[in-house]
Amino acid sequence: MAQEIVQVDAFTDRPFAGNPAGVCVMDAPRDEQWMQNVAMEMNLAETAFLYPRQGAFHLRWFTPTIEVDLCGHATLAAAHVLWESGRLSSDAIARFETRSGLLTARRDGAWIDLDFPATPPASSSESDANAPQLLRSLGAIKGKVQLTKFDYFVELEKERDVRDLNPDTQLLRQIPSRGVIVTALSDDPQFDFISRFFAPQSGIDEDPVTGSVHCALAPYWQDRLGKNPLIGYQASRRGGVVRVNVQGDRVLLGGQALTTLRGMLLH
Asked: What CATH number was assigned to the domain covering residues 123-248?
Protein backbone atom coordinates (compact mmCIF):
# COMPACT_ATOMS: atom_id res chain seq x y z
CA MET A 1 0.00 0.00 0.00
CA ALA A 2 1.37 3.42 -0.96
CA GLN A 3 2.36 5.75 1.85
CA GLU A 4 2.74 9.52 1.55
CA ILE A 5 6.02 10.98 2.75
CA VAL A 6 6.74 14.69 3.17
CA GLN A 7 10.08 16.45 3.47
CA VAL A 8 10.14 19.55 5.67
CA ASP A 9 12.94 22.06 6.26
CA ALA A 10 12.84 22.74 10.01
CA PHE A 11 14.21 25.64 12.07
CA THR A 12 14.22 27.97 9.06
CA ASP A 13 11.88 30.35 7.25
CA ARG A 14 13.38 29.73 3.79
CA PRO A 15 13.74 26.60 1.64
CA PHE A 16 16.97 24.60 1.44
CA ALA A 17 18.16 25.81 4.84
CA GLY A 18 17.62 24.56 8.38
CA ASN A 19 17.40 20.80 8.89
CA PRO A 20 15.41 18.63 6.46
CA ALA A 21 13.29 15.87 7.99
CA GLY A 22 11.13 13.19 6.45
CA VAL A 23 7.62 12.79 7.87
CA CYS A 24 5.37 9.75 7.43
CA VAL A 25 1.90 10.16 8.95
CA MET A 26 0.51 6.62 8.99
CA ASP A 27 -2.95 5.26 9.74
CA ALA A 28 -1.55 2.50 11.96
CA PRO A 29 1.80 1.13 13.21
CA ARG A 30 4.26 -0.22 10.64
CA ASP A 31 7.05 -2.75 10.93
CA GLU A 32 10.20 -1.36 12.60
CA GLN A 33 12.50 -2.68 9.88
CA TRP A 34 10.36 -0.97 7.24
CA MET A 35 10.70 2.35 9.09
CA GLN A 36 14.47 1.91 9.35
CA ASN A 37 14.66 1.08 5.64
CA VAL A 38 12.64 4.18 4.74
CA ALA A 39 14.93 6.36 6.89
CA MET A 40 17.93 4.81 5.16
CA GLU A 41 16.34 5.49 1.76
CA MET A 42 15.58 9.11 2.65
CA ASN A 43 19.16 9.53 3.95
CA LEU A 44 18.18 12.53 6.08
CA ALA A 45 19.35 13.18 9.63
CA GLU A 46 15.97 11.90 10.88
CA THR A 47 12.69 10.66 9.51
CA ALA A 48 9.62 10.82 11.76
CA PHE A 49 6.93 8.13 11.75
CA LEU A 50 3.64 8.79 13.52
CA TYR A 51 0.08 7.54 13.73
CA PRO A 52 -2.96 8.62 15.78
CA ARG A 53 -3.58 6.89 19.10
CA GLN A 54 -5.99 7.85 21.90
CA GLY A 55 -6.14 11.57 21.21
CA ALA A 56 -2.41 11.92 20.51
CA PHE A 57 0.13 10.72 17.95
CA HIS A 58 2.59 7.94 18.61
CA LEU A 59 5.93 9.24 17.27
CA ARG A 60 9.26 7.54 16.52
CA TRP A 61 12.44 8.93 14.94
CA PHE A 62 15.02 7.09 12.83
CA THR A 63 18.36 8.18 11.43
CA PRO A 64 19.64 6.28 8.38
CA THR A 65 21.22 3.76 10.78
CA ILE A 66 19.43 3.75 14.18
CA GLU A 67 16.32 4.74 16.12
CA VAL A 68 16.87 7.70 18.48
CA ASP A 69 15.25 8.65 21.79
CA LEU A 70 14.71 12.36 21.16
CA CYS A 71 14.69 14.57 18.07
CA GLY A 72 13.60 18.19 17.92
CA HIS A 73 13.66 19.10 14.24
CA ALA A 74 11.70 16.03 13.10
CA THR A 75 9.11 16.69 15.83
CA LEU A 76 8.81 20.27 14.59
CA ALA A 77 8.42 18.92 11.06
CA ALA A 78 5.78 16.39 12.16
CA ALA A 79 3.71 19.08 13.90
CA HIS A 80 4.01 21.31 10.82
CA VAL A 81 2.67 18.51 8.61
CA LEU A 82 -0.26 17.79 10.94
CA TRP A 83 -1.41 21.42 10.79
CA GLU A 84 -0.64 21.92 7.10
CA SER A 85 -2.53 18.77 6.09
CA GLY A 86 -5.57 19.63 8.21
CA ARG A 87 -5.18 16.60 10.45
CA LEU A 88 -5.10 19.12 13.30
CA SER A 89 -6.86 22.48 13.37
CA SER A 90 -4.56 25.50 13.40
CA ASP A 91 -5.29 26.25 17.07
CA ALA A 92 -4.98 22.65 18.30
CA ILE A 93 -2.05 21.42 20.37
CA ALA A 94 -0.08 18.56 18.81
CA ARG A 95 0.55 15.81 21.36
CA PHE A 96 3.20 13.16 20.79
CA GLU A 97 3.81 9.96 22.73
CA THR A 98 7.52 9.14 22.44
CA ARG A 99 10.41 7.30 24.05
CA SER A 100 11.09 10.55 25.92
CA GLY A 101 7.54 10.84 27.26
CA LEU A 102 4.76 13.18 26.20
CA LEU A 103 5.93 16.04 23.97
CA THR A 104 3.69 18.85 22.79
CA ALA A 105 3.80 21.49 20.07
CA ARG A 106 1.69 24.59 19.56
CA ARG A 107 1.60 27.32 16.96
CA ASP A 108 2.68 30.87 17.75
CA GLY A 109 2.10 32.84 14.57
CA ALA A 110 4.71 31.71 12.05
CA TRP A 111 6.59 29.86 14.79
CA ILE A 112 6.08 26.48 16.42
CA ASP A 113 6.94 25.96 20.09
CA LEU A 114 7.94 22.48 21.25
CA ASP A 115 7.76 21.56 24.95
CA PHE A 116 10.75 19.28 25.63
CA PRO A 117 12.55 18.00 28.76
CA ALA A 118 15.65 19.95 29.79
CA THR A 119 18.90 17.95 29.62
CA PRO A 120 21.53 20.32 31.07
CA PRO A 121 25.19 19.32 31.38
CA ALA A 122 25.19 17.35 34.60
CA SER A 123 28.86 16.76 35.27
CA SER A 124 32.32 17.94 34.39
CA SER A 125 34.41 15.40 32.55
CA GLU A 126 37.86 16.97 32.94
CA SER A 127 39.05 13.66 34.37
CA ASP A 128 37.10 11.63 31.78
CA ALA A 129 39.46 9.38 29.85
CA ASN A 130 37.64 10.32 26.64
CA ALA A 131 38.13 14.09 27.03
CA PRO A 132 41.64 14.31 25.47
CA GLN A 133 40.62 12.17 22.47
CA LEU A 134 37.41 14.16 22.14
CA LEU A 135 39.25 17.49 21.89
CA ARG A 136 41.82 15.95 19.58
CA SER A 137 39.11 14.56 17.29
CA LEU A 138 37.47 18.00 17.14
CA GLY A 139 40.78 19.66 16.35
CA ALA A 140 40.34 21.94 19.38
CA ILE A 141 43.36 22.94 21.42
CA LYS A 142 41.33 23.36 24.59
CA GLY A 143 37.73 23.48 25.73
CA LYS A 144 35.48 22.93 28.72
CA VAL A 145 34.15 19.38 28.43
CA GLN A 146 30.98 18.22 30.17
CA LEU A 147 28.34 15.52 29.81
CA THR A 148 24.59 15.72 29.20
CA LYS A 149 22.04 12.90 29.22
CA PHE A 150 22.84 12.04 25.60
CA ASP A 151 25.98 13.86 24.49
CA TYR A 152 29.37 15.30 25.28
CA PHE A 153 29.16 19.08 25.64
CA VAL A 154 32.14 21.31 24.81
CA GLU A 155 32.35 25.06 25.30
CA LEU A 156 35.04 26.82 23.28
CA GLU A 157 36.42 30.29 23.90
CA LYS A 158 35.26 32.10 20.75
CA GLU A 159 32.62 31.83 18.03
CA ARG A 160 35.33 31.55 15.39
CA ASP A 161 36.71 28.48 17.19
CA VAL A 162 33.34 26.77 16.73
CA ARG A 163 32.89 27.83 13.10
CA ASP A 164 36.41 26.73 12.11
CA LEU A 165 36.16 23.19 13.50
CA ASN A 166 36.90 20.40 11.02
CA PRO A 167 36.57 17.23 13.10
CA ASP A 168 38.18 13.89 12.40
CA THR A 169 34.95 11.88 12.15
CA GLN A 170 36.75 8.54 12.37
CA LEU A 171 38.19 9.49 15.77
CA LEU A 172 34.94 11.12 16.84
CA ARG A 173 33.01 7.94 16.01
CA GLN A 174 34.93 6.18 18.80
CA ILE A 175 33.61 8.54 21.50
CA PRO A 176 30.89 6.66 23.48
CA SER A 177 27.90 9.02 23.22
CA ARG A 178 25.07 9.92 20.86
CA GLY A 179 27.13 12.89 19.65
CA VAL A 180 29.12 15.99 20.60
CA ILE A 181 27.71 19.49 21.15
CA VAL A 182 30.18 22.35 20.62
CA THR A 183 29.20 25.89 21.61
CA ALA A 184 30.41 29.43 22.30
CA LEU A 185 29.03 32.90 22.90
CA SER A 186 27.80 34.57 19.71
CA ASP A 187 29.60 37.57 18.27
CA ASP A 188 26.39 38.55 16.47
CA PRO A 189 24.09 40.60 18.77
CA GLN A 190 20.97 39.02 17.27
CA PHE A 191 22.00 35.66 18.80
CA ASP A 192 23.05 34.74 22.33
CA PHE A 193 25.09 31.65 21.52
CA ILE A 194 26.09 29.51 18.57
CA SER A 195 26.60 25.78 18.32
CA ARG A 196 27.41 22.84 16.09
CA PHE A 197 26.53 19.17 16.61
CA PHE A 198 28.56 16.21 15.39
CA ALA A 199 27.11 12.69 15.64
CA PRO A 200 28.99 10.19 13.44
CA GLN A 201 28.22 7.64 16.18
CA SER A 202 24.57 7.94 15.09
CA GLY A 203 25.29 8.01 11.36
CA ILE A 204 25.33 11.83 11.04
CA ASP A 205 28.73 13.49 10.62
CA GLU A 206 27.23 16.94 11.30
CA ASP A 207 23.56 17.64 11.95
CA PRO A 208 22.38 20.89 10.31
CA VAL A 209 20.10 22.08 13.16
CA THR A 210 19.35 20.01 16.25
CA GLY A 211 16.39 20.81 18.47
CA SER A 212 17.25 18.27 21.17
CA VAL A 213 20.75 19.65 21.83
CA HIS A 214 19.13 22.99 22.66
CA CYS A 215 17.56 21.21 25.64
CA ALA A 216 21.12 21.25 27.00
CA LEU A 217 22.25 24.54 25.49
CA ALA A 218 19.28 26.51 26.85
CA PRO A 219 19.75 25.83 30.59
CA TYR A 220 23.53 26.07 30.23
CA TRP A 221 23.50 29.52 28.65
CA GLN A 222 20.63 30.70 30.85
CA ASP A 223 22.83 29.98 33.87
CA ARG A 224 25.95 31.50 32.26
CA LEU A 225 24.26 34.67 31.00
CA GLY A 226 21.49 35.10 33.58
CA LYS A 227 19.08 35.55 30.70
CA ASN A 228 15.87 33.88 29.55
CA PRO A 229 14.58 33.49 26.84
CA LEU A 230 17.54 33.24 24.46
CA ILE A 231 18.16 32.76 20.76
CA GLY A 232 20.67 30.27 19.40
CA TYR A 233 22.18 29.86 15.96
CA GLN A 234 23.42 26.46 14.81
CA ALA A 235 26.33 27.27 12.54
CA SER A 236 26.25 24.35 10.11
CA ARG A 237 26.52 24.84 6.37
CA ARG A 238 22.70 25.11 6.10
CA GLY A 239 22.30 26.99 9.40
CA GLY A 240 19.22 27.50 11.53
CA VAL A 241 17.72 29.57 14.33
CA VAL A 242 16.26 28.13 17.55
CA ARG A 243 14.65 30.33 20.19
CA VAL A 244 14.66 28.78 23.67
CA ASN A 245 12.81 29.45 26.90
CA VAL A 246 13.71 27.51 30.04
CA GLN A 247 10.72 26.71 32.25
CA GLY A 248 11.87 24.67 35.23
CA ASP A 249 12.82 21.21 34.02
CA ARG A 250 11.35 21.87 30.57
CA VAL A 251 12.54 23.88 27.57
CA LEU A 252 10.36 25.54 24.95
CA LEU A 253 12.07 25.21 21.58
CA GLY A 254 10.81 27.64 18.96
CA GLY A 255 11.34 27.29 15.24
CA GLN A 256 9.81 27.77 11.83
CA ALA A 257 9.28 25.19 9.09
CA LEU A 258 8.21 24.79 5.49
CA THR A 259 7.45 21.85 3.22
CA THR A 260 9.84 21.31 0.31
CA LEU A 261 8.83 17.93 -1.11
CA ARG A 262 5.89 15.49 -1.24
CA GLY A 263 6.06 11.96 -2.54
CA MET A 264 4.69 8.43 -2.30
CA LEU A 265 6.45 5.37 -0.95
CA LEU A 266 5.37 2.46 -3.13
CA HIS A 267 6.87 -0.32 -1.02
From this structure: 3.10.310.10
